[in-house]
Amino acid sequence: MKTIAALGAGAALPAQTAANAIQLHVDLEVDPAREKELLANFRNIFQPAISRQPGFVDVKLLKFQKSMHGDAPKQFLNRLLISFQTEEQRLQWVASDDHQKAWPAIEKTLKGSKLTAWLYAIA
């Protein structure tokens, strides 16, 4: 679970890094009673910690609003997006002391620690 935790966003990258850039999408099942805590922990703990990592590109925390096409999600209403220039740099973040301190602040707001994650290469 901890290795999945370093999750990713999207941002414009310099052309020389675009071939290796990655984006991790993590859908979170957040305890509704802890949504404000999630947002505060993201802004005050997680975002500052990840943003100082080598190769960091962007991080976003999204909250589902409405379905434009297809079925709306039933439980995973928040998505964490994390982008790094390379997958190796993302893995270094996951192994870092900063990650070991920052991820539990997000994880403790989850309902039963439920999440799903997908890794993409930026085309």
* Helix/strand structural class: alpha+beta
Main β-sheet description? 4 strands, antiparallel
Strand order across the largest sheet:
2-3-1-4
Q: What would you report as the Rg, rounded to the nearest angstrom?
A: 14 Å
Helicity level? 25-40%
Ends apart, CA distance between termini: 27 Å
**Uncertain stretches of 5 or more adjacent residues:** 1-13
Q: In sequence order, what are the helices and strands, one letter per element? A: HEHEEHHE
CATH class: Alpha Beta
Q: Do you know the CATH architecture? A: 2-Layer Sandwich
Mean pLDDT: 86
Count of discrete structural domains: 1
List its salient traits:
123 residues; alpha+beta; Alpha-Beta Plaits; four-stranded antiparallel sheet; 4 strands; globular
How would you sum up this structure, described in words?
It is a single chain. The chain has 123 residues and is of the alpha+beta class. It has a single domain (15-64, 76-121), classed as Alpha-Beta Plaits. Helix content is 33%, strand content 29%. It has four helices and four strands. The chain has helices spanning 15-18, 35-51, 87-95, 97-107; strands at 22-30, 56-63, 78-84, 110-121. A four-stranded antiparallel beta sheet has the order 2-3-1-4. Helix 2 (35-51) packs antiparallel against helix 4 (97-107). The longest helix is centred in the middle third of the chain and has 17 residues, at 35-51. The protein is globular and about 35 Å long. The two termini are 27 Å apart. Mean pLDDT is 86; it is low at 1-13.
